[in-house]
Amino acid sequence: MPFPSAGRGAHAHDSADESASIPPNHDNHRKRWRKRTGKNGALWEGTVRYVDGGEREGMFPDDLRGSLRSAGDFRGWRPYQPRRGARRRVFLKAPVNLPVVESVPPSSRPAMMPGTEPAHPMTGRTAMSDRLPIPPPGTTRQLAFWTLETFRRTRRFIGEILDQWYTAQAADASGAVGTSRRFTAVPRSPEPPPRGVVLEWVSDIIRRRLTLAALLEPLLRRPRRTTPKPLWTLLELGAYQLVFRDDIAPHAAIFETVELAGWLGRPRWRGFVNGVLRELQRQLTDEIVDHPAPDAVPLSPSWLVSDEPTQRYPEAPPYPGRLVRRFRRIAVPRFADPERDFADYFMRAFSLPNWLIHRQQRWARQLVAEPARQRDLLLDVGFWFLGCPRLTLRVNRLRTTPAELRERLQQRIADSGAAASISASDHPWALWLHGRAHVTAWPEFAAGLFTIQDSSAMVAADLLEPRPGERILDLCAAPGTKTTQLAEMMEDRGRVLATDLTADKLRYVEENARRLGLTCVETRQIRPDWSDLPGEAFDAVLVDAPCSNTGVLGKRPEARWRLSTADIAELSRLQRRLLTTALQRVRPGGRVVYSTCSLEPEENEQVVKAALRKTTAYVEQVAVTRIPGRPADGAFAARILRLQ
User: Fewer CB atoms inside 10 A, N or C side of the chain?
Assistant: First the structure.
């Protein structure tokens, strides 16, 4: 939402580095501005970044700007003005140590019902896509559409959006969420659709945005920018069912998607949606191949189950089974030739941002020298990022063994009739679950026999090697999977201090420890600058730092569209501060493990080197990099020893 043009008498700025002066000093313009914004003063448009990485865009009163300046670390409003006389847009960057940032976390704001956002406070107008009212969803497709639209407009995590919706269904008849008049209540449904199915659909559609665009845009007779955004969401939902869901009949996918247009009160969209989807259906074939091509769309990955360990790749440890690649042929080529332009094919076929493609190619060149093996590695990474084909269960070694748990879960699957199976994994204290099953509803989960944790995430605790009776500090503990792994490896003897910035995050740690029967875990909320950490020296410190998540894009579908190169640079600065703090809290002879779920050298090796560059009291002992899809998520971990 840009500002009104400056007009006569306004301060003109030729550079984006100069500070904005809004409202201008011209008296007449000031009067018009105050008339639009009310007697409380000027409204400023911009974005506030919160300490947990979230953002909020909108109009902010002038008193917020003043409070940020009084906090002592005000960085100013940054105007964006591409040419003289153009409309201004400002950006507020709130430093991480401001109290005002902590007091309004984005997760505490209720979801805004798509299509019911308030009008612009100055113009009174809303975009066409924002004027579309959405009825209460009652079916799987309706809820998937509602979730996609909510994500598009609020940029909240889809898990949070669905959690709020299902919580409202379990609440009283009013179903109201939040008290602000700017937000509507979450709609209620008499029989909520299965959450797992909706989450799978929405996650896949968000992951495959570029692929769906490559398939749909050539079928439009007008530029995509002229297509209303809710209508484009309908096309994405229908195309996803046609191309990637072999369990849904094509005629059912088209019919149900066309019916959504009527449900939305847009009968004129019916013919358009029907025509585009039927044309797409005519271009699809049933031929499945195992190699990339301009007319081949990658399908969801699958895992060939085997208990026999294999050494398929020299850069990866032996592990059971292998990733199976599947491509679906289409009648008309929609992608670049992978033999001539692999980067463009990889970007559109596997739906990854262009800046991330170049980083992954650089990363692949560092691992392997041969171009053919580089492409083979990137294909495995691309398939893994389309969705993890299995779930990893970490066995609670204090209550059972992998063999006993595997036998119990196999019986549980047989009794429930679930389309799933259990096999050994690449970690001695973990099992792989193949197929679909609601494992958190099993009695074995409630009894604390296992925890959901990827084997690559278990590497950090393995490197730390906690021993019974030691004092361990976990700096970024939530949600507690690594914290509880440390406590289990210590046989629940000693002390594990789990710290994080908010009490809400620490509640997850406490709940996990309670379910697993662990008593040595202690939680503590700390300040964003870590100034209130205990002064004692610990035997070992774990730093599972916030990162860009570029190694786990399959599990976090929103991450690929929320990231930028600037975000990685900012995260790198935070990670260096975290690691430096951890090094100061370990005793002589103690260990520090730094870990991320990122593939970027700026967040991994370079952070460790920067922290050790100015001191000789520490030495890096070992570093481990896990490659996505070979056979688990991507991750990095390094162990540092403080010398005596």
Answer: C
The rounded distance, in Å, linking the Cα atoms of 221 and 213 is 14
516: CATH: 3.40.50.150
Q: What is the side-by-side order of every strand in the sheet holding 420-424?
A: 420-424, 430-435, 390-395, 450-452
Is 287 in a helix, a strand, or coil?
strand
115 contacts: CB under 8 Å, gap ≥ 6: 130, 131, 132, 133, 134, 149, 230
On whether the CB atoms of residues 139 and 263 are closer than 8 A, the answer is: no
Alpha carbons 546 and 398: distance in angstroms, whole number:
29
Distance (Å) of CA 403 to CA 141, 257, 394, 431: 40, 46, 12, 9
C-alpha angle 60-61-65 in degrees, rounded to nearest 5: 85
pLDDT value, residue 35: 35
Alpha-carbon span 410 to 381, nearest angstrom: 30
Domain encompassing residue 405: 390-436
d(CA 163, CA 158): 8
- 99-123 average pLDDT score: 34
Same domain membership, residue 542 and residue 463: yes
For 187, the 3-state DSSP assignment is coil
Q: Is residue 426 located within the same domain as residue 465?
A: no
Active site residue 597: yes
Q: Sorting pLDDT into bands at 50, 70 and 90, what band is 340?
A: very high
